[in-house]
Amino acid sequence: MKKRAIVAKPTHRTAAADASRVPGPLEHATFVTGATSPAQLPSEGAREIAFAGRSNAGKSSAINALARQHRLAFASRTPGRTREVNFFRLRSGGLVADLPGYGYAAVPEALKRSWQEFLWSYVTTRSALIGLVLIVDARHGPRSLDFDLLDAFMPSARPVLVLATKIDKLNVAEGRDAVARIGAGLRERFGHIGERVSVVGFSATTKRGLAEADAILRSWLE
Ligand code: GDP
Question: Containing domain of residue 217, as a range?
Fold first, then answer.
């Protein structure tokens, strides 16, 4: 008896679905350079999106998830020691700036202060910067240094995406509450400009929130 070719149809359907998938805005990003001082920042021109967050919040994992790569952004082996702003080039021609994590307790105070000044001045003076992605642990929400950074950035009228990450560590109801609480806290602090902040529950592990984050970042880059 002749064997039926049972695999042909599903395979074609899968290939067609893959071909029609719109790639994420960070997909195929490539490393460009690392800057340790304002003088080393790449010249302004291309639209830039910065990723910021406390050390260990999950920033490298979030960038890698958005880029669909495993090792584009490196998790620092010694938290708080990374002293570079790493830049990645997007297919759109835009740039992603991966800002060093802040708030790690073991970093000497003077070093912490000077590095934070660099970060704060970057987000307030960089005119190519079109939006800020703030990574916060969904279980804790934004903490004081996150609020300091938002205080510096928000008056610039540019949008903010808060990725409330590690949401897989909460159950569905807790995750929903955490996202709502973070949004309410930001609206309370920033009043009507708080409306420019989107809060997305995210997990680099389960990829929850990935499509929503992709759509927001795509809208910024268009
Ligand atoms: P960074 O210091 O902000 O770049 O943080 P990392 O991306 O290096 O993540 C810090 C730790 O949190 C690592 O152990 C990650 O495996 C873990 N992590 C990051 N994102 C997630 C997530 O979405 N879910 C879970 N369960 N763990 C995560």
Answer: 29-39+46-221
- How far apart are the C-alpha atoms of 104 and 189, rounded to whole Å? 24
pTM for this structure?
Answer: 0.89
Answer whether 81 contacts ligand 1 (Cβ < 6 A). Answer: no
Is ligand 1 within 6 A of the CB of residue 61?
yes
> Nearest C-alpha to atom 2 of ligand 1 is from which residue?
56
Q: Cα–Cα distance between 181 and 155 in angstroms, integer?
A: 22
205 in any annotated domain: yes
Question: Is the CA virtual torsion 162, 167, 170, 174 positive or negative?
Answer: positive
| Residue identifier of the C-alpha nearest atom 20 of ligand 1 | 58
* Domain count for the chain: 1
- The pair phi, psi for residue 156, each rounded to 5°, is -75, -5
Tracing tokens 């970042």 back to the chain, one arrives at 217
In a domain, 119, yes or no: yes
C-alpha to C-alpha distance for 58 and 64, rounded to whole angstroms: 10
Residue 22, domain member (yes or no): no
pLDDT tens digits, residue range 92-117? 999 999 998 888 777 778 877 877 88
Q: Write the CATH number for 73.
A: 3.40.50.300
